[in-house]
Structures are given as C-alpha cells and as structure tokens.
Amino acid sequence: MTTFKPMPEFALGPDIPESGFVVTDLGEGAYGVTQGMINTMFLETKKGVVLVDTPPVLGDVLLAAIESVTSKPLTHLIYSHSHADHTGAAHLLNRDGLQIIAHELTGQFIKEAHNDNRRPLPNVTFSGPHKELDIDGTRFVLDYTGDWHQAGNLFIHVPERKLLTAIDSFSVKNPPFFRLVFSAHVPAYFEAMNQMLEYDFETIVTGHMALYGTPEDVATNRDYINDLRKSAGEALGTVDLKEVATAAKVPADNKQAELKVWMDAVVARAAELMPSWDKRLGGTDVFLADNLNTVAWSLFLD
Ligand SMILES: [Zn+2]
Predict the structure, then answer these.
(1) 227-260 pLDDT, tens per residue?
(2) 121 and 264: one domain?
(3) What 3-state class would DSSP assign to 205?
(4) 282 is in which domain, residue-wise?
(5) How far is the CA of 205 from the centre of ligand 1 (A)?
(6) CA of 70 to the centre of ligand 1 (A)
(7) Which of 216, 162, 134 is nearest to 28 (CA)?
(8) Cα(82) to centroid of ligand 1, in Å?
(9) Of 190, 214, 238, which residue constitutes the final position of a domain?
(10) By C-alpha distance, which of 227, 211, 206 is closest to 148?
C-alpha cells in the first residue's frame, strides 16, 4: 500500500456527524456546507435562499442543511461552473420558480452533456466578464476573469457580506488537487490567485475539503504554486532529455518514451528542489508530482 505523510491537525476540518453534513456559520446569513470532501455555500436574502452549486455528494442532504438554519425557500441557484461533481444534483431540487444562474459558457457545456439530466440548463445566463445582480436586497457580483479552472467559471462576490466563492480554485490548508485542480489554463490559474486577492472579503469558499479560507489562505496557495513554478523551471533548465534517455536505455526509435522519462526526471528533480511546506499545508506529498508535471508542461508550452 502507498503510504502518505500523516495529516496535520491544522489541515483537517470538523468531524462529520451521522447526518452526513456540517453547516458552518460564515456570518451575516451566509453558511458553508460540507460532507468532508466537497463544500459549497448558501446565503439568506430578505425573501429566500441563494445556493451556489449542488454537489451530488451533498445531494440528499442539501435541503436538510438549509432547513437546519432557515425556513426561507430556495429561490436562486448559481452554477459556479459546469463540472458534475459540483452541479450534478440540481435535478433533486424543486425547480418551480427557481432561477438557475450561470455564465453562458457553463450553459453551453451543460447543453453539450446531453445525456446528463442531472444538470438542468440555467434559465438566467450572461456573456462577458461581469454581471451584477440584486437578489432580494443582496448584491451579487459574478465575474468571469479567465479560464483558471474551466471556461465560464465564476468568482461570486457578495461585497456587503465580505464573502467570495471561487469553486475549485484551491483547497484551504492543502495543496491543489490533481494538476492544479484540473486547471483548463495554467497561466490563468496563477493569475487567478492575484485576482482573488483584489476582492474585499474575509471568507472564501473554494469547493473542496471541510475548511473555509481567508485572504491569507489565498496568498498561501499563491506562494505554494510559485514555489512549484520555481522548482519546475529550475529542473527544466538542468535535466537534459538526451542524457536521461541514454541513462534509461530508451530505444532510439521510441521518441514517446524519451519524452516520458525526461518529464518524469524533471518532476523528480523539481520535487527535490521544493522547499518544505509541511508546516503550512497538509498532504504535501499527495499531489506533488501531478502538480509539478502540470506546471512543468505549462512552463515548457505556454
Ligand atoms: Zn471543477
């Protein structure tokens, strides 16, 4: 069995009770909800509840989670992006009069997934980089600043409550999941950290694990990925393809194998160059090679 470093206490969220979920008061009528692996948020307005996303792992308990803190009806659902792990339980909601809001590109992705009836199409979409909505007295700012995760992905800012939601941007107190959280465009991912820090917020909801973050956590992730980039860049500059291929006895006619052993060697060298992050992040060993591979290819190609 593969062994991993033990998870430090600071990187763990609350224990999940038998109900299967934990609701966290994020202040001013905003709440986070998680089952440990995936999280999202909902917010009370004057008349109802606005929910961001419908993760299938929370599908059965989402309404119970909302009802545990308010009796107001669910009036609005915002899709942060189209990925099914965050939106695939929308079919479980009562959609009479429910407004489903998303970027136009998110609507297009859902349309393309035509075998999936779990994700009803949004009925309110916008194109372009910016949309402001007044939802029953609460101002929501929806920004599409680049495809840092997936085309159409949103920053959802609620300025009066100092709350930012950026689903699949990073994991609080943990390194990013596989390949920088499956980023569609790595340079945009790096830029997204700076963009997030321009918002006025105290709490950020990022979509995975059981913890919610602060601007400091965004800065931590930015510093961490900058270290990935620095290490990968140095490794790319020092690990020679021909040398590695010769040492590994790759047959001269197998160019694919040459490339593979070279990048594996780049990643291994970059991992050695990485400073220790164990005091600031938990599980630094788990996705290190995946993230270094992604950053190294991006440095090489982008
Ligand atoms: Zn996603």
Answers:
(1) 999 999 999 999 999 999 999 999 999 999 999 9
(2) no
(3) strand
(4) 225-301
(5) 14
(6) 28
(7) 162
(8) 7
(9) 214
(10) 206
Helix (H) or strand (E) holding 39: strand 39-44
Whole-number Å distance, alpha carbon 219 to ligand 1 midpoint, is 21
Task: Please report the pLDDT score of residue 60 as a whole number.
Answer: 86
Q: How far is the CA of 165 from the centre of ligand 1 (A)?
A: 13
Q: From ligand 1's centre to the CA of 241, what distance in Å?
A: 34
Nearest to 89 by CA among 115, 64, 114, 117: 117
pLDDT at 2: 84
CA–centroid distance, residue 87 to ligand 1 (Å): 9
pLDDT at 1 over 80: no
Ligand 1 centroid–CA 6 distance in Å is: 27
Same domain, 207 and 232: no
How far is ligand 1, taken at its centre, from the CA of residue 193, in Å?
16
pTM higher than 0.85 for the full model? yes
Place of tokens 């859902």: 110
User: Which CB contacts under 8 angstroms, 24+ apart, belong to 139-144?
Assistant: 140/50, 140/78, 142/78, 142/101, 142/103, 144/103, 144/105
Q: In sequence order, what are the residues at sequence separation of 6 or more whose Cβ sits closer than 8 angstroms to the Cβ of residue 242? A: none
* Residue whose structure tokens are 């950053």: 295
CA of 86 to the centre of ligand 1 (A): 7
- Whether 173 and 276 map to the same domain: the answer is no
How many residues can be counted in the chain? 302
Distance 244 CA to ligand 1 centre (A): 35
How many CB atoms sit inside 10 A of residue 76's CB? 22
